[in-house]
Amino acid sequence: MSVSGLEEIIRIAAKGDGVTASGRHVPGTAPGDLVAADGTITRGPHHIDPPCRLFGQCGGCELQQVDDTGLADMVKGRVVHAARAQGMEPARVAPTHLSPPRSRRRASLRAVNGGGGRALIGFHAAGSHRVVDLRECHVLAPDLFTISGRLRNYLSKRKGKFSAEIDLTLIDQGVDCTIRNLPVEGLEQTEDLLDFCRDTALARLSLDQGFGAETFWEPEPVTVTLGGVAVPFPQGAFLQATQDGEDALTGAVRGWLGDCRAVADLFAGLGTFTFALPPHIPVLAAEAARDAVLACKAAASRHRRPVEAVHRDLFRNPLQPAELARFDGVVLDPPRAGARSQVEQLAASGVAKIAYVSCNPVSWSRDGALLAAAGYRLAEVRPVGQFRWSTHVELASLFLKDGE
Ligand SMILES: C[S@@+](CC[C@H](N)C(=O)[O-])C[C@H]1O[C@@H](n2cnc3c(N)ncnc32)[C@H](O)[C@@H]1O
Predict the structure, then answer these.
(1) pTM of the model
(2) Which of 16, 263, 269, 303 has fewest C-beta within 10 Å?
(3) Domain extents for the chain?
(4) CATH class belonging to 106-221
């Protein structure tokens, strides 16, 4: 719409810019803003003051100027647009689930020496390698934010230059931390680091000096509880970004497949969907990361769940229609690239219900079009914004074989 030379921002593009009906991209805007020819922006109803003082410098968030309605519309719009681009019209679009502020339970940070011996820890600055010190954060779960501050204090005492990468994940026992590229040499440094682990009650600390991560501290074996089942948590294992995002995705899948006789969970990871299903349903959980398969298997056996966890590369060796014949439900949650070769086999199968969970609407819709061409209809999509204030979009979807 053009009001006396002003153009209205009608949507947020995949990279975060606002876009007008004429296709003009304007960074830093929200849907409903009006943009003049000289670039002056008049705020619309969805443009808010960013809650964080670091917004715009820190690389952790991209869209804090957009209110919740605008964010939810963006997440839904990306999913529906991707489906339509492949000729699919979802029969139902469930309300978008947005994770609340301060709920992110995993983050990758960088720590470097600042001036005056002070360490800086934070996300990369937007569009650069500079680290913006995380003095405030509205996305990280409070326990992760607290640990980031304690790490800053600890690292500030270290002498010598460093540039380390730090992965933090919130699990059952507290914070699981992996630090890469931080030399720990000699007795004094080792004891200092042990004191840090003890004082902060870290659940686990792993160090990776370029030769793979090794456990430095783990007072008790770490686990993550999935669907009420405590699963051993291997270093670097995949976990949905927020607990409530996981609940939204698993709730959708349980609602769709909860009455199945037998389910295959493909790209199963530790068993997020496997263990979310009703406990009496036999599940085949297939996954390529060997340590995740072992963790899933151990948890299933301890909890006497009818789960067969198998190590399998589903890109090279997808489940074939004959193997799929014993399942009336399949859930798949592949990496960003999608699951073309596995979906080709699913399309050729007779599986009645397919729940496809995705972190990439583009690869999902391409794969979905293969199912649609084989007689599956897109019965429902559930857009999910786990990465609040970012352009990262997730979804759960249900494909039904015609006649179901
Ligand atoms: C998005 S994660 C989902 C994991 C799990 N469904 C969850 O929700 O926690 C994708 C999973 O696919 C696995 N994966 C990646 N490539 C694979 C392949 N070629 N074959 C089987 N699994 C693969 C990864 O190890 C990861 O566990």
Answers:
(1) 0.96
(2) 303
(3) 1-47, 70-100+239-401, 106-221
(4) mainly beta
Do domains 70-100+239-401 and 106-221 share one topology? The answer is no
- Given a cut of 70, whether residue 114 has pLDDT beyond it is no
Q: What is the pLDDT of residues 148-187, one digit of tens each?
A: 999 999 999 987 788 999 999 999 999 999 999 998 989 9
Q: Decide the pairing of beta strands 353-358 and 329-332.
A: parallel
Instruction: Provide the percentage of residues in the chain whose pLDDT is more than 70.
Output: 98
Q: What is the DSSP letter of 397?
A: E
Average pLDDT over residues 100-126: 89
Intra-chain end-to-end CA distance of the chain, in Å: 42
Distance 287 CA to ligand 1 centre (A): 6
> Which residues carry out catalysis?
359
Contacts 24+ apart (CB under 8 A), 335-341: 335/267, 335/359, 336/360, 336/363, 337/363, 338/363, 338/364, 338/366, 338/367, 339/266, 339/267, 339/314, 339/315, 339/367, 340/366, 340/367, 340/370, 341/314, 341/315, 341/316
ipTM strictly over 0.85? yes
Ligand 1 centroid from CA 400, angstroms? 23
Three-class DSSP category at 69? helix
What's the mean per-residue pLDDT of the chain?
95
Which sign does the torsion angle of CA 397, 30, 103, 393 carry? positive
Q: Which DSSP string corresponds to 123-142?
A: SBBTTSSPBPP-S--SSB-H
Round to whole Å and give the CA distance between 127 and 273.
35
Residue 289 CB less than 6 A away from ligand 1: yes
Alpha helical stretches, state H, 8-95 = 68-85
Residue to mutate, 224, 265, 287, 310, ligand 1, most ligand atoms under 8 Å from C-beta:
287
Which amino acid is located at 204 in the chain? Answer: R
Low-confidence winner among 45-54, 62-71, 122-131, 329-338 (lowest mean pLDDT): 122-131
